[in-house]
Amino acid sequence: MTKDLRHVKGRASALRKKSLPARAPRGWRAALAAKGPGALAAMRQPTRPPPRRRLNAKLLASFGALLLALAGCASAPPQNFGLHAAEIRPLRARGSIVVDMPTAAPPLGGDLLVVREAGDRLTSLAGAQWATSLPLLVQDRTVQTFQNAGLSRALRGPDETADYRLAMMIRRFDIDAPTRTARVEIAAQLVVSGSGRVAAAKIFSASTPVAEIAGAEPPRALDQALGRVLPQIVAWAAANG
Q1: What ranges in the chain are assigned the alpha helix state H?
Q2: 31-68 pLDDT, tens per residue?
Q3: Which of 49, 129, 199, 220 is the most core-located residue (most Cβ within 10 A)?
Q4: Cβ atoms of residues 188 and 201 within 8 Å
Q5: What angle do CA 101, 127, 171 make, to 5 degrees?
């Protein structure tokens, strides 16, 4: 009796275990493992960005290159301009002359192309400058104009002894914006070497119309105005020196 009862209980326990559903694996890793080894390997492989993201990346790269190009254009160096010596008839001088470096008040003492706005407000021409400082340019072109007049023998170097020294002060060398005019005004003195006595003094000026206050037109007009002043200075210095 006891043996039969144990046999019946054993069969009932086996039937209960067989009828219970199997417990599902816990966690996403277990779930992938249940699907097979290929599912977990697929999850570990890197995924490519969708085509739209790749296109956006290319657009951003192109936009960055455009910004760099525009920045390079914005930081382009200004264009350099020079001045020319004047053509002049042959002259004769009684004494020797040294052409001193002209003086000039700021901003005429540098390489800026000065523009005089309304109310005498001084600005500079954008994108342009003199090839070197304005006083040095004027000194060099004055010496060359003396040479063009056949007065090379009358010229002396800065450290040499001469009868006279030509001292100049650049009073105006700018573009008058309200009247669209290039104006050059230079005060000259012929100074006796040694004593420092002023033998002669005069102010020379000239003006030239400017078609537009941009590009190469302003320096060209100033060069033309200087080309009218230099012959007057050289002829005056030769006659009084």
Answers
A1: 2-19, 27-35, 37-44, 51-74, 134-148, 217-240
A2: 545 555 555 555 555 555 555 555 455 555 555 555 55
A3: 129
A4: yes
A5: 30
Query: What are the phi and psi torsion angles at 207 (to 5°)?
Result: -140, 155
Give 123-175 pLDDT, tens digit per residue: 999 999 999 999 999 999 999 999 999 999 999 998 899 999 999 999 999 99
CA distance 224 to 226: 5
pTM of the model: 0.70
Q: What angle do CA 97, 101, 104 make, to 5 degrees?
A: 135
Kindly report the length of the chain: 241
- 151 close to 236: Cβ distance less than 8 angstroms: no
Q: Are 146 and 231 in contact (CB under 8 A)?
A: no
Residue in 85, 114, 106, 111 with CA at minimum distance from that of residue 183:
114
Answer for the pair 137, 82: CB distance below 8 angstroms, yes or no: yes
- Domains of the chain (ranges, CATH numbers): 21-74 (no CATH), 80-240 (3.40.50.10610)
DSSP 47-65: PPPPHHHHHHHHHHHHHHH
Tell me the C-alpha to C-alpha distance, in Å, between residue 138 and each of 86, 101, 177, 233. Answer: 11, 8, 23, 12
